[in-house]
Amino acid sequence: MANTIGSFRVDIVESKESTLNPANVKLPGVALNLLKLFQLQPTAAAVPPLPEGVRVVTAAEYKQAAACLADAFAEDDVVFYPIDTPDRAHWTKQEKWALHVEILEYVTYAHILKGLVTIVGDFEAVALWMPPASDMDDYLTILRSGMWRLNYRLSSEGRRRFFTEFLPLLHDTKHSTLGPRDDASWYLVYIGTSTRGRGKGHASKLIRHVTNQADKDGLPVYLESSNKKNPPIYRHFGFETVRTVYLHRAERNVELDIMVREPKSMEKQ
Ligand SMILES: CC(C)(COP(=O)(O)OP(=O)(O)OC[C@H]1O[C@@H](n2cnc3c(N)ncnc32)[C@H](O)[C@@H]1OP(=O)(O)O)[C@@H](O)C(=O)NCCC(=O)NCCS
């Protein structure tokens, strides 16, 4: 995810194989190589067998899924890190909330296109997953999901926090933590249960849906935990904190626990 969105600001990539002169389109702050854009197609992720009560979100439902996540992450320091900036001190709560929802709509849509988005109930809980060897680094996904709009929707400090600090930190931390297994792991990017749906086992269903498959395939599962309340919950599913990283640009450092779940031997279960 990280590089992905960060990388679309790096702009033109010349195709070594092609002798054609790449045509470029200019978007605010973005120059896209149309050849690269049209060569890349979204790929459907393999979906682990769905347990009762869990289903995959369709593109038509992205707003409902994002609304659930927005509710779940209403108090989250990491999610608000690029929104609650000193240069947006004049914004009302409603304006910040609208941007919060908008960002989650882009992120959710990108995961519908290139990852896996699952829900329980009537959008009571939502999980955004990136399956092994998947990413949303291509221009088509950035365009189709609306992620490119963050280039002008975030403030100048918001862009610095999001593109030059947050995304590279997430990307580099995942890469250095998992090493060669980075591409052979499941990534739980977001999980949230709406306030009305908590404590009913919804998140458990969404997590176990994928951890069961990861166990069968012998793959680790990776996540960043942004809330101090959550590591005990994740430990309950077999995740362990392997390191802690920090975002430094706000008044107080924002902490993220990096957790990895090693695959359980199927024989022991
Ligand atoms: C964290 C969150 C997703 C949990 O959702 P939920 O649907 O209420 O969780 P569940 O009811 O499925 O409970 C999860 C499991 O953890 C267990 N659990 C709950 N609190 C626990 C604790 N303090 N210690 C250990 N286990 C705990 C539950 O017993 C349950 O396990 P079980 O199914 O084996 O009984 C939800 O509180 C949330 O959305 N929080 C805000 C957003 C957020 O922080 N998301 C995570 C980002 S890192």
From TrEMBL:
Pfam family for this entry, one: Acetyltransf_1
A molecular function (GO) term: acyltransferase activity, transferring groups other than amino-acyl groups
Protein name per its UniProtKB record: N-acetyltransferase domain-containing protein
Signal peptide location: none
Residue span, N-acetyltransferase domain: 126-267
Domain of life, source organism: Eukaryota
PROSITE patterns on file: GNAT (PS51186)
